[in-house]
Design brief:
Elements (H helix, E strand, L loop, with lengths): L4 H15 L2 H7 L3 H18 L4 H20 L4 H8 L1 E2 L6 E2 L3 H8 L3 H4 L2 H11 L4 H4 L3 H24 L12 H25 L10 H4 L1 H13 L18 H24 L1 H4 L3 H30 L8 H9 L13 H18 L12 H36 L5 H4 L9 H5 L3 H11 L17 H39 L1 H14 L13 H18 L1 H19 L11 H19 L3 H13 L6 H20 L3 H50 L7 H5 L4 H6 L5 H7 L1
Antiparallel strand pairs: 1-2
């Protein structure tokens, strides 16, 4: 790093290439899946730091994800799958928790591992735990079961609050049942919001006035009005509502229940893990808005109660504010009245509440991918928002600098001009200029907003029209079309891998309900809060030592297994006792994660063969299968030999055909040559008849010289014969 940063970066990349090798991990790691997860997360972190090798590090991380999927493909039985997915802790310890390795894959965002059919099969088995018939039931049967459950739900909740460990109420702890109850609770909350919105216009009326409701107080108000020369709030005014409506009170109870649920989630997950989810942050913001809104509402109710009973009419300074808190006529309200602020906060919170429905959409196969696409588009919108702010800000500043004078011309000019023009209205202040520029993006702007009217300043108008036109070209023609193209690309990327993305999102949703917690929905969880708090205090105070002993037992047992050299007094090594203890503890911990159906299957299998569970043996078996498959792909098999034999045979026949073709061509050439020689001899005989007797001698090449020496033919004849 000090002398050659490029060399150091390349060394690091090559080192990680070796560490990410499938062969190296398979032969050296005791837990290849856990090693691949950790190394993949490290490579993703390096891709964000060393951006010059970003593609290489991402390719290595993708290679590790594919490797874990290949290992998962070699899992053959349900027992092996459960051992792999329930593994927890270090490789040398046989610690098991329900879906511990699956939760780790969700934490490291190993989407391909999570979306694997084996993992999804185990997830759905845990999701429909205790309700296996519901998974394959028809819709009429599901509706009938749902109606029966709704009718018996109040009785089950009452029994749960009194006898929480009764076997009959375990149905409330089933994951799918908890999800259905939470969903119905949230839908009820949204219905209450809609009812509250419909009732908001009926909270006040002109018939509920100060004169009709409080005549004594109206006489005090009349005397105060005469003291202020009748310039206060009229002869009479409508009264503000004293207490919130029943619907608003129910909404406040629901909000308190949501707050208890979020506190429980923070206690179970920890503040760091809690803040990693955007939905948790949205819930926190939502609760803050609702708490602020209802705090202002109840504060106003307290103000109303304190001011409706006036005791000293002589204190006119306080009477003005006391009558202000009673008046429902908003014409006399201040801009930041508590009710105005409460309604604004309540409106924003309601929008976030309805958008919170997107959290439940991944449970549906048709709506889940659309929700994921919407989330990606929101990210694209936030990215483009920065670019839009820069463009809008630059043109807003330029237009305001061009028209600033005409917004304050009344304060500058001595001569009073009676005419008005649009530039003063649309570009008067910075806020008005921003509003004009912003709404012009959506086609809400006029072309004559830059007119200066009676001012003969054509140069300023022309420059303003040019700037305004360039702004519309840049935003509408370029930025918006590019923004649409980016969202289209995001939709296509999601569509290409929609199944994997949807299964990962659905797994995140399901894992929130698999396990302890969220037994009672909002707002019934408020009833179980005090009982849970008392039980926790009793458990911490009375059972602290026993709980510590239970937690330390697996480590101590595993530690005795690691030390094979230590022997006890009976001559047997403590490693043997440790192994037996490990096997028993492993079986107990593993069986605690199984459903009753799995326990029955396991007991039947144990009646055939009694073999202790061992994660090390299972992962070694999977690695051996993986290596054998790789070797089988690399080795030459009988099929390869047959293919080579067929290639040789076809080559042989091709060569034979080629030789036969060549022989035929040679014969044809010999025939042509012989016919040509005969034709030459015929021409020679016609040219020199005296050489008819000597023609046979010319065919013999050995006697050619003797024949030419004994000839008495003139040179001309020889030349003609040639």
């Amino acid at each position: 790093m000090k002398f050659d940063m490029l060399r150091s970066a390349k060394y690091r990349l090559n080192a990680y290439r070796g560490l990410a090798s499938e062969a190296y991990i398979s032969l050296s790691s005791k837990d290849p899946i856990f090693t691949a997860f950790e190394l993949g997360a490290e490579l993703k972190s390096l891709s964000r730091v060393e951006k010059y090798f970003k593609k290489e590090y991402k390719d290595l991380a993708e290679q590790l994800s594919e490797y874990t999927v290949k290992l998962l493909d070699r899992v053959r039985t349900q027992q092996e799958l459960e051992i792999i997915l329930n593994k927890a802790g270090k490789p040398r310890f046989n610690h098991f928790e329900s879906l511990a390795r699956f939760k780790l894959a969700l934490f490291y965002k190993e989407k391909k591992f999570v979306a694997h059919p084996s993992c999804q099969q185990k997830l759905m088995k845990s999701w429909y735990y205790g309700m296996g018939s519901l998974e394959r039931a028809s819709w009429p049967k599901r509706i009938l079961m749902f109606i029966l459950f709704i009718l018996s739900y109040p009785f089950l909740v009452l029994v749960y609050l009194v006898f929480p460990k009764w076997k009959m109420i375990h149905i409330l702890k089933y994951p799918c049942i908890k999800f259905i109850c939470q969903m119905l609770s949230f839908i009820s909350f949204l219905v209450l919001i809609i009812i509250s919105t419909a009732e908001s216009s009926q909270t006040t009326s002109s018939t509920n006035s100060l004169r009709t409701q409080h005549q004594d107080l109206h006489r005090v108000y009349s005397s105060f009005k005469s003291f202020t020369n009748g310039t206060f709030m009229g002869d009479d005014f409508p009264m503000r509502p004293l207490f919130p409506s029943i619907t608003e009170f129910l909404i406040s109870i629901w909000v308190f229940g949501f707050a208890c649920q979020e506190c429980n989630q923070i206690y179970l997950l920890g503040i760091e893990s809690y803040t990693e989810s955007w939905y948790n942050l949205m819930d926190s913001a939502l609760l803050c808005l609702y708490f602020a809104s209802y705090t202002l509402r109840y504060m106003f109710a307290l103000k109303y109660i304190l001011n409706v009973n006036l005791t000293d009419p002589a204190q006119y300074f306080f009477l003005e504010w006391q009558f202000y808190w009673l008046n429902a006529d908003r014409f006399y309200w201040q801009p930041f009245d508590p009710i105005n602020a409460a309604e604004a906060l309540f409106a924003v919170a309601n929008i976030l509440s309805f958008s919170r429905v997107s959290y439940l959409l991944p449970a549906n196969e048709a709506l889940g991918p659309l929700q994921i696409t919407l989330g990606r588009m929101v990210k694209d919108i936030l990215k483009f928002m920065l670019l839009f702010i820069v463009v809008i800000g630059s043109f807003m500043v330029g237009l305001h600098n061009l028209y600033w004078y005409y917004s304050v011309h009344d304060d500058i000019e001595i001569t009073d001009h009676e005419f008005q023009f649009k530039a003063e209205k649309y570009f008067g202040t910075v806020l008005v200029t921003f509003r004009t520029v912003f709404w012009s993006i959506f086609g809400r702007g006029d072309t004559d907003v830059l007119s200066l009217g009676e001012y003969q300043n054509n140069f300023t108008e022309d420059i303003g029209y040019i700037i305004y036109g360039v702004f519309n070209i840049v935003t509408v023609t370029v930025l918006i079309n590019m923004f649409i193209a980016v969202m289209t690309r995001s939709f296509q990327n999601i569509a290409e891998d929609a199944d994997c993305e949807w299964k990962f999102s659905r797994s995140l949703l399901y894992m929130e309900y698999i396990g302890e917690g969220c037994t009672l929905p909002v707002p019934l969880n408020i009833l179980g809060g005090p009982r849970a708090l008392v039980n926790k205090i009793i458990k911490v105070c009375c059972c602290c030592k026993s709980a510590d002993d239970v937690r330390e037992t697996p480590d101590e047992v595993s530690g005795s297994k690691i030390d094979p050299d230590h022997s006890n007094t009976n001559g047997t090594s403590s490693a043997e006792h440790g192994c037996r203890s490990v096997d028993i503890a492993t079986i107990e911990m593993y069986e605690s994660t199984l459903s009753p159906e799995d326990m029955d299957m396991r007991r039947r299998s144990q009646s055939i063969i009694m073999e202790p569970l061992d994660y090390k043996k299972v992962i070694q078996t999977i690695i051996q299968r993986y290596i054998f498959d790789i070797q089988r792909e690399a080795e030459v098999t009988e099929d390869d030999f047959e293919e080579i034999k067929q290639d040789i045979s076809s080559f042989r026949y091709e060569m034979l055909n080629q030789i036969k073709a060549n022989e035929f061509n040679i014969n044809e050439m010999a025939t042509s040559v012989s016919s040509l020689l005969k034709y030459v001899k015929t021409l020679a005989r016609n040219g020199n008849p005296s050489q008819e007797d000597d023609s046979p001698k010319e065919e013999n090449e050995q006697s050619l010289e003797d024949e030419t020496q004994n000839q008495d033919v003139p040179d001309t004849n020889d030349t003609g014969a040639l």
